[in-house]
Amino acid sequence: MAEEQTIVGATAEKREDAVTADFLNLVRERSSIRHYDPNFKIEESEIREILEAAALAPSSSNLQPWRFLVIQDQAAKQELFPIAFSQQQVLDASAVIAVLADKLAYKNADRIYSGLVKLGAMNEDVKTKYVAGIHQNYGNLSETRSLKIAATDGGLVSMQLMLAAKAKGYDTVPMGGYDADKFVEAFGVPENYVPVMLIAIGKGVKASYPKTRLPLDEILTWNKY
């Protein structure tokens, strides 16, 4: 019996090591690709799968403010092209995903936390108080603070999106180079949605530059500065 438990434990440990190695390799191999096969198209079902994985990212008070606008139609990409300062990946990638953040996401708090009540993770009284606190706090945020939260949560979901895409064999590049005001107007973005970034996704045809990073000891400090 003890021998069987040892074997099972060793097998589980090897499996965990393999998962860890796979993830670390994924992180190392993901890079920003700007050259795409214009004839390659990602199926809608796969984009949905990638976005479902991305949406598992953490967010402030679990309000999940991210919203995705998937721009796949070539005519729509042509419209986006000058708004994104004529970056060729806009036209050639399978899709461009606009990551947006809803500044009024706190209004979904009751719906979100009612789910926890149904799961038995929170009782109704606690939920009611928690939701009231969220409405009080988030409903009175300054514009600056609201935008900071949107940028933080949008960044978290964007990175998870790009890793999920890489795990499925696709390439991505995040883009901050676009006219946000023109984008909002051209694509009918609701006024409570804040553009965070654009992410091109598709099948890369040319490698990016090799990764160069500052040495860890230059960017790491323990405990206090």
UniProtKB/TrEMBL annotation:
CDD domains reported in the protein's UniProt record: MhqN-like (cd02137)
Keyword Oxidoreductase in record: yes
SUPFAM superfamilies: FMN-dependent nitroreductase-like
Pfam families hit by this protein: Nitroreductase
Domain Nitroreductase: 27-203
InterPro entries membership: Nitroreductase (IPR029479), Nitroreductase-like (IPR000415)
The UniProt record lists the keyword Plastid: no
Source domain of life: Bacteria
Key words, A-Z: Oxidoreductase
Coiled-coil annotated spans: none
Annotated family: Belongs to the nitroreductase family.
UniProt protein name: Nitroreductase family protein
Organism the protein comes from: Paenibacillus filicis
